[in-house]
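Hi there. Long-time user, first ticket. I'm pasting a complex I've been working with (about 828 residues overall). I'd like to know whether the download I got is complete or cut off, because the file seemed smaller than I expected. Thanks.
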Amino acid sequence: MSPLDRRQFLTGSAAVLGAGALGAIAGAEAEAESRANAAVTQSASEQARIALGGELATRVPFDAPHQAGILTPAPAQAQATFVALDAIAPNRGVLATALQNLSTRARSLTQGDTVGAEELDDPPPDSGILGPINAPDELTITIAFGASLFDRRYGLQALRPRGLERMPNFAHDNLDPARSHGDVLLSVCAGQRDTVTHTVRELMRSVVGHLTPRWRIDGFQSARRGPTPANHPRNLFAFRDGTANPDVNDASLMDELIWLPPAHPPTTQPARPLATPSAPPASPGARSSGEPAWASGGTYQVVRTIRMHVEFWDRVGMFEQQKMIGRYRVSGAPLGGTNEFEDPRYDLDPQGKRIPLVAHIRLANPRTPQTADQRILRRGYNFDRGIDEAGDLDQGLVFVAFNQDIQRQFATIQKRLEEEEMVDYITPVGGGYFFAPPGAHGPGDWVGSGLFV
Amino acid sequence: MKPGRKSRWALAAVFTLAVCTFVGSALAPDGSSNARPFAVSQLAPKSAPNPLAGRLKKVYGTSTPASRYGTENADLEDEGTNVAGEQISELSPLPPRAFTAPENEYRAYAERWISSALTGAASLRRALAAADRPAAIAAWESTWSDYLHLGAVYLTGAAATINQAIDGTPGVLPGGSTDPHFVGLHRIEMGLWTGESLASLIGYDMRLEGNLERLRGVVAHVQFTPLEYATRSHEIIEDAQRDLLSGMDVPWSGQGVLGTAAGLAATEEVFHTLEPLISGRENTEGEVRSELLMLSGVLESISRHSHGGYPSLPELGSYEHEQLNGYVAGALSALEEMPGTLETEVRRPIPKLPPPSPAEKAAASAAEKAAEQTP
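Hi, the file is complete. Here it is re-exported in full:
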């Protein structure tokens, strides 16, 4: 992530608008249009000056070996929308064009672009709700594909990532088909809600007629409220979330847990043990899993729309709440401890007298050598969808996790969590399994291009 | 001054003098051994030595300085903990054996409703065989309502498996509504309200009758812990609110109000069996009874307007819907006190983690640093 260079950005804006002005001068009403465009230029420059004066100027590169929005720290991107789309393109070529358009538009929006001018009687090319400058605002757009994209329609069956399947119903799920699955998933995350709203609108516009919306959900991050800058924000059950996430700054660990390895991994370098002290070396067989070559550098994305019955939760005593989670609500420390980042030391508590054996944190991450390679990277958002038919708040968690192998990681954890007591207070109602391909290499490339070579 | 006013002043003066004389005689020191009523028996000496040697720095029985004791103790009480680290309650725990009679009573109640549901399922089978859809719908509603009177949604173990076969919804099954394991009341509901052939539903009904019979055998022996039974008192209506009033579990019939009324009846039964234990413990009994009455009242009103039955959720008027939602929430806010009021144990303090080793400290510090670096 890098703050956008203000000088370069303004120069680029002026160049774009200047080119537009030259075209207009060639016309019959050159003078009048020149004045109009000059006014637009001035206005755009002024807007850019304002927009780039603050946090809106921060941008996250779109072109990279791995897509943005996966390891990108979520707390700075307080707002998100997840949109699942179904492909209606008539053939493979049109689908490729749609995906190319999607990346092209995503690239320009994430890097910050200028709202171009068109003929006055044409619809504007951009809705313009952010003004004449689409400031980047730490925007990331992560593009992922569902298993259904690899059915017979487009002849992509052979290229389906090996671990990509339709998300099953786990015990206690109550999945609504209208809020589940999909051919393409867009994860749009940014600092401000209007940035996300604008982005979704523009992206949908770029693929209209080829990809059509299936479901969407908006999310938000809780603010970090301390007491120290390190303490994690809380979910809507008031417990801190994300404490045990693997360190995204540890590139080797990410290679072990998140990214699909090259199809033919180099044999000269030995597998590196996981970061957990007593973890065994990763099994090469589990890693070089015969995935198609185009998928290397990608990752599996799990999205679960989990309704949290907050009124139910609010009727539970604090003692029971903490036992269900395994942490103190206020500090986030494991039960018996004092610090959020303290090791829960399950080895000292084999009977579960301190932290129950079915406590959420214990089932989610038992912290044993055998489960070290099951860890996932969670990147969830809260949601608040209003009120349901019964007058209860429709709130919860858009659970988002990235992992290298869904069966080895997410699905294994999820099956363990079927035993937790918290299942009475949550209902998974939607979501799906997706595969986020590697990132685009540059302006001529697009996310998913490997499917069409 | 008028004569009448003068006499009133004189009377007041005599009364005041009499009161002063009486009080003075009562408070005057008396040297005689025969203490009279209201007399002071002994005057305190002008000064007395402190019976406790030295100056106290800690509150007796604790290691807390007196200057902080009040604040610390108040903070602990807010957390439901005493100075010994135990989880405290203002009520003394009930003995677990106190729940034996209520649970026996509930089991007998449940068996009666299973019998009633079996009768309903037989009527449903006859209506299906006669291809009489209105009669079949009426029989389904009756059977389903009878079943929900059990409050059976929280049965555990073998009973939970049978419950899934009787009242399970398709959302939890891999194949959804087309899953072969989607059987029971909601499978029949789907068929009845979507125009499926009635003859095709007879098999489901026969299976339902078999499962109800099996459940009758299990319910007689089902065991609850006191906490489970006390918690059941609010969980039945919670379930009705989440699954029925929301329409989630009754997408075809929309009979969420009917199901909620059955859930209320089950709750009233659990409450009735527990009343002897709750009585006199905080204000729970009165508050619950009051809220259940109000909820019952709104359901009766809805039923009256619907000529003795219950409207489906889409048919429910917006004001009635708001009332129902509100009184359900009100009932739950009172019922949430039940488990705490019926506590059977003193919670032991949570064991403390040993002080971290240098390596653990370093690991925690590294994790904290990594988290801090995340903007």
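A couple of notes from our side: The two ends of chain A are 30 Å apart (CA to CA). Chain A touches chain B through 51 residues (CB under 8 Å).
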